[in-house]
Amino acid sequence: MNNLESISSEIREAIIESGGKEAFECYECGMCMSLCPWFQVGNVQFPCYRTPQNVRLGAVMASEEKEELAKEIAELFRCVACDNCKAFCPRHVDMGDIMRAVRRILAEYDSLPKELKDVASKFYNVGNPQGDAPEKRNDWATGLDLPIYKSGMEYGYWACCLPAYDARLKNIAISTAKILNTAKVSFGLVDTNVWCCSETLRNFGAEKVFKELAQRNVTAIKEAGINKILVTSPHCYTTFKNEYPELGAEFKPTHTVQLFAELIKEKRIVPQKPIKKKVFYHDPCTLGRQNGIYDEPRTVLQSIPGLKLVENPIFSREYSVCCGGGAGGLWQDWPKEERIASVRVKQVKDTGAEILATACPYCILMFDDSIKTMNLDIEVKDVSELLVDAL
Ligand code: SF4
Ligand code: SF4
Predict the structure, then answer these.
(1) CA 302 to CA 299: how far, in whole Å?
(2) What sign does the CA torsion over 259, 262, 268, 272 have?
(3) How far is CA 169 from CA 174, 210, 314, in A?
(4) pLDDT of res. 5
């Protein structure tokens, strides 16, 4: 008998209704657990495959002991939606969907971990995880003289909440704008009436808030007449491409690395200034494994004179290890010896790289933090920041 039979029918029904139907395809081989980045952390037990999760959910629902309950709930939020398990599961089980389903149930019971509840209310109240004023969304562009998108322009540029509001990350948006201007790309900023794409909300279970914010964005983008939307974050990219169509979105996203690679190919930008550094490119899960964009960022980096791209086929491209920032991981404060980002940084260090390049603001924050904690001398840069320095 399938172990799933042993959990209460109430929980079983709830998981199916919340989108975790694929759990029934699992035959419990355990491969996903050994591929999960938490397995590499070493001192963390995270049996992600479905039966333990269902049992754990049952334990959460049944528990009356507050501390134990909080611990059990926190464990269910370890999954960072990296899709490594899905990519290699012999039954193609989508663990991300199962985790979402479980978390949606917990959200219905008002049982999100405190950090995620706090961040969800910031999203709900002002439309960004930092809790900053919506009208300041384009303040990063002050002094750059960039227009708001209007009809006839080619791209609407969507900077993502993290570069829009974060002091370190706004340099990514600024670098992108400079590159686009150098290449004479026709673009305007998406106006400040949009809120976060809300990918992370959906992944950590706050489905109702996701739908509300996403619907608002779909309406605003349609009203602005934007058909081609250029994004900095792969989280926005995957949400616009794979999630928003169910809400009636008709616009197509382009990630900046895709456009940069095209501009280089067409010689609309020519990197000339050398960067004599060894660079490791980290494939963000949402760009690589989830959307197959592996070559474009490498094309951009390889076009920079003097730059030496160091790779390790064991943990590059589809074998990339997550930064740990997905599905709410960015806001969860795991002890420093329990961080996936540190596993990744250690791999990068072993390649001898001086710069860890990536194309995702979440990854940059996670790696910056781990590198600081590990006291290493590795710079973390977005592809746009390296490219602008080479022009
Ligand atoms: S790898 Fe797939 S089939 Fe095997 S336990 Fe994990 S989800 Fe189930
Ligand atoms: S999606 Fe990633 S973090 Fe979540 S269970 Fe699968 S491998 Fe682990």
Answers:
(1) 5
(2) positive
(3) 9, 23, 29
(4) 54
On average, the pLDDT of the chain sits at: 92
266 or 110, greater pLDDT: 266
User: For position 305, what pLDDT does the model report?
Assistant: 98
Residue ranges per domain, the chain?
Answer: 3-111, 116-261, 270-390
Is domain 270-390 in CATH 3.40.50.10700, yes or no?
yes
Cβ atoms of 106 and 327 closer than 8 Å:
no
- Pocket around ligand 2: residues whose beta carbon is below 6 Å from it? 32, 35-37, 48, 79-85, 95-96, 99
pLDDT in tens, 311-352: 999 999 999 999 999 999 999 989 988 999 999 999 999 999
Task: Write down the architecture of domain 3-111 according to CATH.
Answer: Orthogonal Bundle (1.10)
Q: Whose CA is nearest to atom 8 of ligand 1?
A: 26
Closest CA to 169 of 180, 160, 178: 160
Residues written for the chain: 391
Residue with the smallest CA separation from ligand 2 atom 4 is 79
**Predicted model pTM:** 0.94
